[in-house]
Specification:
By secondary structure, the chain is mainly alpha-helical. The chain has 17 helices and two strands. A two-stranded antiparallel sheet has the order 1-2.
């Protein structure tokens, strides 16, 4: 009879009979098969997902364009603050609407001009995306760090620590984040801004980040708590305890590597949610205010003029839909790459 090892060797030597995974293994200098790390396997699965790759490129393009907004605006020859309607009487009619077709789209103004003020919409969108994505990335980083620390701590320590952290999470989850911010902003302004002075943009940015962070980490912490509760009873954790490993080493070396997947997947889902939440607050008039460009404020302006100038909503709306859709699809692809059993 042929042993399993002999069968595997014979199939490896015959390319047409070798399993797909075995044929793709790399060979070292001596001709032996070299295994691949989990990260390499994940990247190989992700590269095979055409939808994920396309969405990843689109999302990366959004971040690159947003980061290079000043350079692009300089090459374009416009900025988001100049009132071009006042400089050129042919841009706006007597009612303040663009005189050109489709919102004033032309070779000089690629996306048209803003009604009433005559500012360039292309640079407004560039800088608006930069503001919204910058705030959302900062919130996501803080949420991931906080949710990971508290969720893993609650799951590993258990007992009273788990109980009280659970009650704090339940309490904070009862607060609607956007309504809380609407009520919170006047308090911040009253505390940090003298009466009669205009609220600085940095105060609004800090308030946006803090409120979304304070009310956004609970879902990730609850998810990781459940993951760690099941992992801490596994044999490899018990073996680490028996060898005298400290709780810090067990958490960082044994538990955290096993919860990287849910952390990354949740981060890819949270960031577009924070983008839309920030845009929604600016749309309501309690987020980023004039003259700082913001994605949500473009929707606020479009809501006032769309009946007479629907084109003004086209480019900010299309950019938001494409970004959120691609990021959500990217999250699905990342999840499938880490866990092929959950493939769609």
């Amino acid at each position: 009879m042929t042993s399993p090892s002999q069968t595997a060797a014979s199939t490896a030597d015959t390319p047409e009979l070798a399993p797909k995974g075995l044929k793709k293994e790399k060979k070292g200098k001596g001709g032996e098969l070299v295994g691949r790390s989990p990260g390499q396997l994940m990247w190989a699965r992700f590269k095979r997902d055409r939808t994920g790759m396309i969405c990843g490129i689109v999302v990366l393009a959004f971040f690159v364009v947003s980061a290079l907004a000043p350079a692009i605006a300089s090459l374009y020859g416009k900025n988001p603050y100049t009132l071009y309607g006042n400089e050129n009487a042919n841009l706006l009619d007597e009612f303040g609407y663009p005189m050109g077709a489709n919102g004033g789209i032309s070779g000089d103004f690629w996306f048209g001009v803003e009604p009433s003020l005559g500012r360039d919409l292309f640079t407004q969108l560039l800088y608006g995306m930069r503001t919204s994505l910058g705030i959302s990335v900062a919130v996501t980083i803080l949420v991931v760090i906080t949710g990971t620390i508290l969720g893993v701590t609650a799951g590993y320590l258990g007992g009273k620590t788990d109980y009280w952290l659970g009650r704090v999470i339940d309490f904070l989850m009862a607060f609607p984040s956007q309504l809380t911010f609407v009520a919170f902003m006047p308090v911040v302004v009253a505390i940090f801004v003298p009466p009669g002075d205009e609220t600085p943009t940095y105060i609004r940015v800090v308030a946006l980040i803090l409120v979304q962070w304070a009310l956004g980490w609970m879902s990730l912490a609850r998810l990781l708590r459940g993951q760690v509760l099941s992992l801490r009873e596994r044999e490899f954790v018990e073996a680490a305890k028996i060898t005298g490993a400290s709780p810090w080493r067990i958490i960082t070396k044994e538990l955290l590597p096993n919860v990287v997947t849910p952390i990354l997947v949740q981060a890819t889902y949270m960031l577009p949610l924070f983008v839309t939440a920030e845009a929604g607050l600016s749309f309501l008039g309690v987020g980023i205010m004039e003259p700082t460009p913001d994605w949500g404020r473009l929707f606020h302006t479009a809501g006032m003029v769309y009946e007479n100038d629907p084109t003004f909503l086209l480019f900010p709306g299309a950019a938001m839909v494409i970004f959120v859709l691609c990021f959500n699809l990217l999250g699905d692809s990342v999840r499938d790459a880490f866990d092929p059993k959950s493939g769609r």
